Amino acid sequence: QVQLVESGGGLVQAGGSLRLSCAASGRTFSSYVMAWFRQAPGKEREFVAAISWSGVTTYYKDSVKGRFTISRDNAKNTVALQMNSLKPEDTAIYYCASDETLTTATMRRVFEYAYWGQGTQVTVSS
User: Fold this and answer.
1) pLDDT value at position 101?
2) In what order do the strands lie in the sheet with 78-83?
3) CB–CB of 1/105 below 8 Å?
4) Which of 91, 106, 82, 109 is nearest to 39 (CA)?
5) Which of the 8 DSSP states describes residue 15?
6) Which helix (H) or strand (E) holds 33?
7) Cβ(7)–Cβ(119) below 8 Å
8) What is the pLDDT of residue 19?
9) Which terminal residue of the chain, N or C, has fewer Cβ atoms less than 10 Å from its own Cβ?
10) C-alpha distances in angstroms, 62 versus 46, 113, 123?
11) Residue 110 carries which DSSP code?
12) For residues 18-37, b (16+ Cβ closer than 10 Å) or e, as one string?
């Protein structure tokens, strides 16, 4: 079992930055793929970014490439999402997710993740 707790959301103006953090506890964090998803009102939850267990490989939704950076610290059991140049369309609840058995083909799929945090609200004003 893995427990995930997000923090760092808030209200920011367009063009601003926020840093989200996710603290993990439970089973061996370092062996899990970690990811961020988001869900805007009235929309389905969507993939934002993921990072391999080693931290070497990262994956991004096309619309956030060059603006968002995912990173992890296995010694501290944390994963972060640095969000720069934020846009109003980035407004959503952001969720941290993890799972052990993922591949490049499956890590963008919501239903592939067994463990989820409670979410943190990010609001970008225009």
Assistant:
1) 80
2) 2-7, 18-26, 78-83, 68-73
3) no
4) 91
5) T
6) strand 33-39
7) no
8) 98
9) N
10) 12, 20, 20
11) G
12) bebbbbbeeeebeebbbbbb
Per-residue HEC secondary structure of 42-80 comes to CCCCEEEEEECCCCCCEEECHHHCCCEEEEEECCCCEEE
Tokens of 31: 């062996």
Three-state DSSP at 121 gives strand
Q: What angle do CA 96, 99, 101 make, to 5 degrees?
A: 155
Q: Which residues contact 103 (CB under 8 A, 6 or more apart)?
A: none
User: What is the Cα–Cα distance from 79 to 91, expressed in whole angstroms?
Assistant: 20
Token output for 50: 């993921």
User: Which residues have CB under 8 Å from 38's CB, separation 6+?
Assistant: 45, 46, 48, 90, 92, 93, 94, 95, 122
Q: Which residue has the tokens 């720069």?
A: 84
**Average pLDDT along the chain, 126 residues, taken 10 residues at a time:** 93 98 85 94 97 92 98 94 98 96 88 95 97
